[in-house]
Design brief:
Aminopeptidase i, Domain 2, 2 domains, nine-stranded mixed beta sheet, seven-stranded antiparallel beta sheet, 11 helices, 27% helix, globular, binds manganese (II) ion
Length: 474
């Protein structure tokens, strides 16, 4: 009886220890090594297109072949597909038939940012400065995007049909761009009493581009002309080409270690590229799994998962179909439905870690902390679990056992106090396919900001957790 009581009392003891306290020296080394790979990745992959390119290179090096090159099912074979340059699905084929289910980890590659408007370029007549108009993408706190160095990444379809990529602001010799806030000396009447949400408004998020007039004497807007002339000379662009472009303005620069102890990473875009990286990287370590392991990286999560590159498009169905066709080109439709129904999924997305300066938005007993391992979020949503995939006791039990058996530190969390706010992920869309799914990913401080903070211990825990999940036989 005494022993039983001790077990009851201590069953949550490990949850009160940070990963750093539990990890062995070898595990700490592993954490630093995977975090260093991640830092390089996140420093380069600034847009969903760049994430896709990085992954195609990474998995190519690890022996993954494009689906078009693979003729038939072979356990242990490594395959991948992309979609419109913005989605990646990679899989290691299992020993059991796909209709018995896959182990799927789905993350998203898009991050909050500023997109250029369709007709973005203008010259302010009084100041004679040239700027870009923007429309923000995803949930940002707009005041965080002023007075910081910004880079521009664009894909442009020119009038002759050629597609060009433009990247400016990441290399040490590149110029950067910026959005100018009002000086404190003059902000009292105009800005000081605004609510924080309106501190900077959407239409004030204008990107500074140039101040030099063109030599052309007759031109009216000479600074705008200078920019147009430059774009034409350097990239062959004309103004109308902005209509057929996607330009993303993002924080410039590389990921950095944070803290005296270098235990954390500060970078833009960690939501959700931290999960995309750890899941794809974990998949490259999987050999011949029992069930087929799939890492799926989708786009448009930050604006509600609409559009043909989002989780709601039928790309997921296409991936499963192509895999089924490797065994039987004329597979019956029920096999696809059975494959979905029997698939176990992790919606791999980040959650909010407690910020010591703003603790009271969380109910601390159920809040995720930095450095305490991958966070299982049974439900997200808001206002009474509304719009949430609420994972079942059975599936939580399975995932918990997988993590405990593999001795991977984990924690639970919810996105803030009941009625405080909330948010959603791709979980509920996978659940629409009748998959069991739970949200699991690292917790970040300052999520959606230009400098999100993660823990190297959590990166390691997440990477190990996804690998264990891929190799799980339920
Ligand atoms: Mn996310
Ligand atoms: Mn997000």
């Amino acid at each position: 009886m005494a022993k039983q009581k001790k077990t009851v009392e201590d069953s949550l003891a490990l949850k009160r220890m940070s990963v750093w306290e539990q990890a062995t020296a070898t595990q700490k080394e592993e954490a630093l090594s995977i975090s260093s790979e991640y830092k390089d990745f996140i420093s380069r992959a600034k847009t969903e297109r760049m994430v896709t390119e990085e992954f195609v290179t990474l998995i190519g090096e690890k022996g993954f072949k494009h689906m078009d090159e693979v003729k038939r099912w072979k356990a242990g074979a490594r395959v991948y597909m992309t979609n419109r340059g913005k989605n990646v699905a990679c899989a290691v084929l299992g020993k059991t038939p796909l209709e018995d289910g896959a182990n799927l980890v789905a993350s998203h590659s898009d991050s909050p940012r500023l997109d250029l408007k369709q007709n973005p370029l203008y010259e302010d007549a009084d100041t004679r400065l040239a700027l870009f108009k923007t429309h923000y993408y995803g949930g940002i706190k707009k005041y965080q995007w002023v007075n910081i160095p910004l880079s521009i990444h664009g894909t442009v379809v020119l009038s002759d049909g050629r597609t060009i990529d433009i990247h400016l602001g990441e290399e040490p010799d590149d110029p950067v761009f910026t959005i100018c806030d009002l000086l404190p000396h003059l902000y009292r009447k105009k800005q000081a009493d605004r609510k924080l949400q309106e501190g900077i408004t959407g239409e004030e998020l204008n990107v500074l581009l140039a101040s030099q007039p063109h030599q052309e004497e007759k031109a009216k807007k000479k600074v705008k002309l200078w920019v147009l002339d430059h774009l034409h000379e350097k990239y062959g662009m004309v103004e109308e080409d902005f209509v057929s472009s996607e330009f993303e303005v993002v924080p410039a620069g590389k990921a950095r270690d944070v803290g005296f102890d270098r235990s954390m990473i500060g970078a833009y875009g960690q939501d959700d590229r931290i999960c995309a990286f750890t899941s794809v990287r974990a998949l490259t370590e999987v050999r011949t799994p029992g069930r087929t392991s799939i890492a799926l990286v989708v786009d448009k999560e930050e604006i509600g998962s609409d559009g043909p590159t989002s989780i709601k498009s039928r790309f997921v169905e296409e991936v499963f179909s192509r895999l089924l066709e490797l065994k039987d080109p004329d597979y019956p439709d029920r096999k696809l439905r059975r494959a979905f129904s029997n698939t176990k999924a992790i919606s791999s997305d980040v959650t909010g870690a407690v910020n010591p300066s703003f603790k009271d938005v969380h109910e601390i007993q159920n809040a995720a902390k930095l450095g305490y391992g991958i966070c299982l979020t049974k439900y997200t949503g808001s206002g009474g679990k509304y719009s949430s995939n609420d994972a079942s006791a059975e599936f939580m039990g399975l995932v918990r056992k997988v993590l405990n058996d593999a001795k991977i530190p984990w924690q639970t969390g919810e996105l803030g106090k009941v009625d405080e706010g909330g948010g959603g992920t791709v979980a509920k869309f996978l659940a629409e396919l009748n998959m069991d799914v739970v949200d699991a990913g690292p917790a970040l401080i300052s999520m959606h900001s230009p400098m999100e903070v993660s823990s190297k211990a959590d990166i390691w825990s997440t990477y190990r957790a996804y690998r264990a999940f891929f190799e799980m036989v339920p």
